[in-house]
Write a structure and sequence with these properties.
There is one protein chain. By secondary structure, the protein is of the alpha/beta class. The protein is 44% helix and 13% strand. Strands 6-5-7-4-8-10 form a six-stranded mixed beta sheet, with helices on one face. It has a four-stranded mixed beta sheet with strand order 1-2-9-3. Helix 2 packs antiparallel against helix 9, helix 5 packs across helix 10 and helix 6 packs across helix 10. The longest helix is centred in the last third of the chain and has 36 residues.
Length: 299
């Protein structure tokens, strides 16, 4: 397995080892997974070597390959309900899309019921709340950052701490876990309210490798994938609470957007993700959005 995150990072640490253990248990030890991280292949360059079969599996966030397809990214605009996502055919649709690109979607675990907030050097003082600020964010956030008055900056995780410390950026859009791992409480003084959106990772397998497995091995992987989707939501909700408490204890204060901007957060997030997805993946993303809207799971 090629992983887009180092082994000590929360999104990897709290999902991948549990998934791997489930796969081994489900297969009576016949399937074992070894992991290599972004030190082997940079996170934004990992899709192609898995497509090519240089690696069997990929643990990633779909924003990292949105230049190839943004259909996977669309899932971050769809409500977190693992069972309903599968019952409504949303996971199957995304899986079929990636199979056309040589990949099998094994699992799409979410990192909690809600996903994000902004981490800022200075408090919000007016409206728009991010006016004049340079905010780090992947393409998922860009539209929302702009709607809130900021200027988005795309940079890898490894550069954020130093950029915050030096004032190169004024803040960062990020998940509700992981900021403590990255020691951001040393370089930001504020975290924003409300939290918004949802975020998940994806586990893919090279399609040829998947097709070479017998049905028992395939079932071991899929059942582990389904279970980790369910387990991860409550697990990360608890981690998010602990993370917020840690940051507060270490001097990071809450700063709030205006009431009108707070009420618009979910819509701005969802519409921003769909904008990126539809610009990049056209009808494929639009069809997925129609499915999710019909299920009352998105804007």
């Amino acid at each position: 397995m090629l992983a887009g995150y180092p082994s000590n990072f929360a999104w990897y640490r709290e999902i991948a080892p549990k998934f791997i253990e489930m796969v081994e248990d489900n297969s009576d030890g016949n399937l074992q997974i070894n992991v290599m991280g972004p030190d082997v292949v940079p996170a934004f360059e990992q899709l192609q070597p898995v497509q090519a079969g240089a690696f069997d599996l990929l643990f990633t966030h779909p924003a990292y390959h949105s230049g190839t397809t943004a259909v996977g990214l669309s899932l971050d605009a769809i409500d977190v309900d693992p069972v309903k996502r599968r019952e409504e055919g949303i996971i199957d649709y995304i899986d079929e899309h990636y199979q056309e690109r040589g990949l099998k979607l094994i699992s799409a675990p979410s990192t909690g019921t809600k996903g994000f907030r902004f981490y800022l050097r200075d408090p919000i003082s007016g409206e728009p709340g991010l006016e004049g600020r340079r905010i780090r964010g992947t393409v998922s956030y860009h539209s929302m950052i702009e709607e809130l008055g900021g200027s988005p900056v795309n940079m890898p995780v490894t550069d954020i701490y130093t950029s915050l410390q030096r004032g190169v950026i004024d803040g960062a859009a990020w998940g509700l876990t992981g900021a403590s791992d990255l020691q951001w409480h040393e370089v930001v003084d504020y975290m924003t309210d409300p939290v918004f959106g949802q975020v998940g990772v994806m586990i893919f397998m090279n399609l040829d490798r998947w097709n070479s497995l017998d049905s028992d091995a395939q079932e071991a992987l899929i059942e582990a994938g389904k279970q980790i989707e369910i387990d991860s939501v409550a697990h990360f909700d608890a981690l998010q609470k602990k993370e917020a408490e840690f940051l507060t204890e270490n001097g990071v204060e809450i700063t709030s957007f205006s009431e009108s901007e707070s009420q618009a957060h979910e819509r701005l997030w969802s519409e921003g993700v769909w904008k990126v997805a539809e610009e990049q993946s056209g009808e494929n993303a639009r069809k997925l959005r129609e499915m999710a809207k019909s299920a009352d799971m998105t804007y």
